[in-house]
Amino acid sequence: MPKMIITTVTCQQCGRLFTAGKYTRFCPDCRKIRALAHHRGVCRRRKQRFRREIGGVYACIDCGAEYVLTSGLQVCCPACESASEPPVVQHDAKVCPRCGRSFYDPRASAHYCSLECWDDVNRMRYKNNLDKKAAVAREILIKSAKTNLQVMRLSAGLSLSQLAYRVGTSYSLLSAYENGKRELCRMSDDLASRIAAVLQCSVDDVRAHADAPQPPINLRSLRLSAGITQAELSKQIGISQSAISAYERGFLPLSGMSEQLAERIAAALHCTPDEIKDE
């Protein structure tokens, strides 16, 4: 970009000398006067072009007929104005299912009266979905609970920290009682009564153990009658010893055992597959 040449220039309107660019024609004062005059001229021309007087006679832009101007926004005759008015559509009133208020919906697509009601409904739906997921997770935890204390706490919807705060004891102590590291029968009467008051149950229910799954008698009795250990049976049928132990203790249902596995166990124990699956 070339540099601007600063020099002494003579104003073409008033003849005064002033310092400015080489191609400047007017001094700052004359430029202000010319800008003000230009603005006034523009406003005057606009008024002359668009100025209309109330009561004057003008031509309609639609049909060309003459009419008497009654307002500044009128652009056509009264006949054309009445013909161009849109028809009035009567909409039936709707009832908002959230708040019960009646409202009119011109688009016929809204179900709620306002965005607040719509947000409340979406918030409740989100909360219900979370509650359903929490209920499913709670049922899974209840099935794997070791003590009746843990079952009642989960059924009441309390966490270990919440129960410890309400009872007035430590989190680690309640966790030890629930996990079986501490015996519930040795729990103090004061602590058991406070837990029972929070969970709304009896002291005996707090100290009771959870109902463990009943182990099936057939598989274990058949294995013992055959004189085979779990390790030997696992090598013969080709599965892990922990899987056999789970089947015998009832943590894996025998009814869900595959037919091929039942036939291999029956061949090793010299019995029928129906006897193995019979719980």
What's this, in brief?
This protein is mainly α. It is built from 13 helices and six strands. The strands form three sheets. The chain has a two-stranded antiparallel sheet with strand order 1-2. Strands 3-4 form a two-stranded antiparallel sheet. A two-stranded antiparallel sheet has the order 5-6.
What is the H/E order? Answer: EEHEEHEEHHHHHHHHHHH
The number of helical elements comes to 13
- Please give the number of β-strands: 6
Give the neighbour order of strands across the main sheet: 1-2
Main beta sheet: 2 strands, antiparallel
The overall average pLDDT, rounded, is 80
Structural class: mainly alpha
Low-confidence parts: 212-216
**How large a portion of the residues is in β-strands, by DSSP E?**
5-15%
| Shape, per Cα inertia axes | elongated
How much is the radius of gyration in Å? 46 Å
Helix proportion range: 40-55%
N-to-C span: 97 Å
Walk me through the topology:
Elements lengths: L5 E5 L6 E5 L6 H23 L6 E3 L6 E3 L9 H7 L8 E3 L6 E3 L10 H29 L4 H8 L4 H8 L3 H9 L9 H11 L3 H5 L9 H10 L3 H8 L3 H9 L9 H11 L3 H5 L2
Antiparallel strand pairs: 1-2, 3-4, 5-6
What would the keywords be for this entry?
13 helices; two-stranded antiparallel ribbon; mainly alpha; 279 residues; 6 strands
Can you characterise this structure?
The chain has helices spanning 28-50, 78-84, 115-143, 148-155, 160-167, 171-179, 189-199, 203-207, 217-226, 230-237, 241-249, 259-269, 273-277; strands spanning 6-10, 17-21, 57-59, 66-68, 93-95, 102-104. The protein has 279 residues and is mainly α. The strands form three sheets. Strands 1-2 form a two-stranded antiparallel sheet. Strands 3-4 form a two-stranded antiparallel ribbon. Strands 5-6 form a two-stranded antiparallel sheet. α3 (115-143) runs antiparallel to α4 (148-155). The protein is elongated and about 125 Å long.
